[in-house]
């Protein structure tokens, strides 16, 4: 049984070729515990959003849709915990829900205090962005503060539960955290009076 991740092409255009290939070379997915009956599910996964996945009932291995690839990897704890977001992505699924991205004109935009919205000055954003689970040592400059703060302390100050801490995600750009997802943006990326465009990111939690 394989234990290292393997990448398979997953573009929509390649899905028909992939089903033929999988039908002829079943061992490609059989090695990860998937059966011939699951080939149709694999093809559907090729058309799903980045971050979607399916699991083998036999081994617990996952096929994860990541941009134009399917990643076959050992099971950990749900969806992929590191997701790359490009400038072309408008919706991105992950373990806690989904992010919706859109660019708006700053002149007609009103900043919302809703923690589920990240309103960022688009001129300071450079793609790709990295959506990932937080880790010890992470820090950012919380909105309204000039000094950096470690996320571990930020979570303590907010009295987050252990489960909430374990499920916390961050959005990162060039090794800088721009948003603690669903909680607070970084001061350095807030909208100012000189902003021309706004990158609005909306968090939709899983129901």
Q: What's the alpha carbon Rg, rounded to whole Å?
A: 19 Å
Shape: globular
Would you count the extended β strands for me? 15
Measured as a percent range, the helix fraction is: 10-25%
Low-confidence regions = 12-25
CATH superfamily of the largest domain: Phenylalanyl-trna Synthetase, Chain B, domain 3
Q: For the record, give the distance between the C-alpha atoms at the N and C termini, rounded to a whole number.
A: 35 Å
Short description:
With 207 residues, the protein is α+β, with helices and mostly antiparallel strands. The protein has 5 helices and 15 strands. Helix 1 packs antiparallel against helix 3.
Structure write-up:
This protein has a 5-stranded antiparallel β-sheet with strand order 5-9-12-13-14, with no helix packed on it. A 4-stranded antiparallel β-sheet has the order 1-4-3-2, with helices on one face. A 4-stranded antiparallel β-sheet has the order 6-7-15-8, with no helix packed on it. Helix 1 packs antiparallel against helix 3. Helix content is 16%, strand content 33%. It has 2 domains: 6-73, Uridine Diphospho-n-acetylenolpyruvylglucosamine Reductase, domain 3, CATH 3.30.465; 82-205, Phenylalanyl-tRNA Synthetase, Chain B, domain 3, CATH 3.50.40. It has helices at residues 15-24, 27-30, 39-46, 151-157, 162-166, and strands at residues 6-9, 53-55, 62-66, 69-73, 82-85, 91-94, 97-105, 117-121, 129-133, 139-140, 149-150, 169-173, 176-180, 184-185, 197-205. It contains 5 helices and 15 strands. The radius of gyration is 19 Å and the shape is globular. It has 207 residues and is α+β, with helices and mostly antiparallel strands. A hairpin with a 3-residue loop joins strand 13 and strand 14 (184-185).
């Amino acid at each position: 049984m394989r234990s290292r991740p393997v990448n398979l092409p997953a573009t929509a255009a390649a899905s028909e070729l992939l089903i033929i290939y999988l039908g002829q070379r079943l061992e490609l997915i059989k090695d990860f515990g998937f059966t011939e009956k699951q080939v149709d599910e694999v093809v559907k996964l090729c058309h799903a959003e980045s971050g979607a996945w399916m699991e083998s009932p036999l081994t617990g291995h996952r096929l994860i849709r990541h941009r134009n690839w399917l990643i076959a990897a050992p099971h950990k704890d749900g969806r992929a915990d590191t997701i790359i977001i490009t400038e072309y992505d408008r919706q991105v699924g992950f373990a806690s829900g989904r992010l919706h991205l859109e660019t708006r004109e700053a002149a007609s935009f009103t900043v919302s205090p809703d923690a589920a919205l990240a309103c960022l000055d688009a001129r300071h954003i450079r793609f790709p962005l990295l959506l990932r689970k937080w880790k010890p040592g992470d820090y950012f400059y919380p909105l309204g503060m000039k000094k950096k703060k470690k996320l571990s302390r930020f979570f303590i100050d907010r009295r987050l539960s252990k489960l909430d801490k374990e499920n916390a995600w961050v959005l990162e750009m060039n090794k800088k955290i721009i948003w603690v997802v669903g909680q607070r943006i970084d001061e350095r990326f807030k909208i100012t009076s000189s902003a021309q465009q706004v990158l609005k990111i909306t968090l939709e939690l899983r129901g």
